[in-house]
Amino acid sequence: MTEKKQRRKDRVPMPEQDPKARAKNFLEVPLGYTPEMAEEEAGRCLQCKVPACVCGCPVNINIPGFIKLITEKKYAEAARKIKETNALPAVCGRVCPQETQCEQHCVLNKMGRAIAIGRLERFAADYERENNLIQLPSKAKPNGKRVAVVGSGPSGLTVAGDLVLLGYDVTIFEAFHKPGGVLMYGIPEFRLPKDIVEKEVDYLVRLGVHLKLNEIAGRTVSVDELLSERGFDAVFIGVGAGLPKFLGIPGENFGGMYSANEYLTRSNLMKAYRFPEYDTPIVRGKRVCVIGGGNVAMDAARTALRLGGDVTIVYRRSREEMPARKEEIHHAEEEGVKLRLLTNPVEVLGNEKKMVSGLRCSKMELGEPDESGRRKPVPVPDSDFVIECDLVINAIGAGANPLLTTSTAGLELNKWGYIVADEWGLTRKDRVWAGGDIVTGMATVIEAMGAGKKAAADIHEKLMGVKKPAAGR
Predict the structure, then answer these.
(1) Cα–Cα distances in Å, from 141 out to 92, 310, 455?
(2) CA distances for 311 relative to 204, 323, 387, angstroms
(3) Tens digits of per-residue pLDDT, 33-60?
(4) How far is CA 224 from the centre of its chain?
(5) What is the per-residue pLDDT for 412?
(6) Radius of gyration of the chain (CA)
(7) CA distance 42 to 91
(8) What do you get for the CA distance between the two ends of the chain, in Å?
(9) 323 to each of 143, 190, 326, 353, how far by Cα in Å?
(10) DSSP H helices in 360-429
(11) Helices 75-82 & 117-130 angle (0-180, nearest 10)
């Protein structure tokens, strides 16, 4: 009788580029699991009869199902199992905060050893793609209904992917010359390679989704025109939240002052990450300050580092309050990014040429919690000091771009300019749905995808009378 193999207790670590090497290139940092590593990690899964992990997934992936297929060496089948509810597994396996979603609900998390669900998702998707094993699922017969999707970010791609399988004629309208939205222009190459995004979008095109690029909804085409002149039966708005927020301090108009949105867009869409092959019009700071403590701040800081800068992140709260993923903070520090915590910018300084020369800051201390639940930073009197720098990147968040929303009669907006929609994405305007950051404000990729899935189900119910699942599923 053979001895039963002992289940590994700790997570299988994922190989990564050496920090000193990766700080000078834009290649992907985590290198991915080998099949042997994936099988070993998958073997830790308890295959719970009531899988709590699925409840933590906004798109309800059958997590135990795909993990079991990995233990059986059925890697491509595992990817197909994921794609039953998620058309972008290679993206989600890289950028979704699994530690606060599916992995947080894993029963092994009580011992601090949750299954590495995201890493396994990435492995399965990469294996299927790299070995040319992608198979297109069967589609319902055309139902004669046409749906326009405005924006090709995660929510829009999800709506399109779900509806095209249900027999809809789906067209995505994208303002940029490349599809993918924030996946393409907002997330750096070293965290999410452009090739991965392009192949995920190509999968949807192969399914039958139509793409119209360089179409600026609200300018070149309106929502009402889509519903009337162009004959669409429904419109989904997934334009994201791309309007930069400003600090409201002196000196924000100096040269060398960027919003993180502009900085990352220039780097990603204009290929600054391939300098000197591409000489992108972007300031390459020698001494860089990035303001903010979220994932976007980490992305901007790590990009500036790779473009030759000595980078400091300036954040007004303590490390414990930083909203960025712990993994991203860890990677940034490994690579040489410095943190100046409990530090609040009060003025951007400039030289005689009106270019950034420094950042005046105040020291802070933490007071009582504010509406976000984090302790509110309070200025320390007479504590101002200057950080010398020639580039400042503002990464304190983004708001709703009013271009489409203010040009579309009948949409209700809240006080922040976001579209008002019900839990299924239905807006106050007839035959118009919305989801993702344009409804919730800045959130995660997977949350936007979850909103897209709900909207697709509601569109299907309203147009074809097919009952949608219960709320929350």
Answers:
(1) 29, 57, 21
(2) 38, 19, 11
(3) 999 999 999 999 999 999 999 999 999 9
(4) 29
(5) 95
(6) 23
(7) 20
(8) 44
(9) 44, 20, 9, 36
(10) 402-405
(11) 110
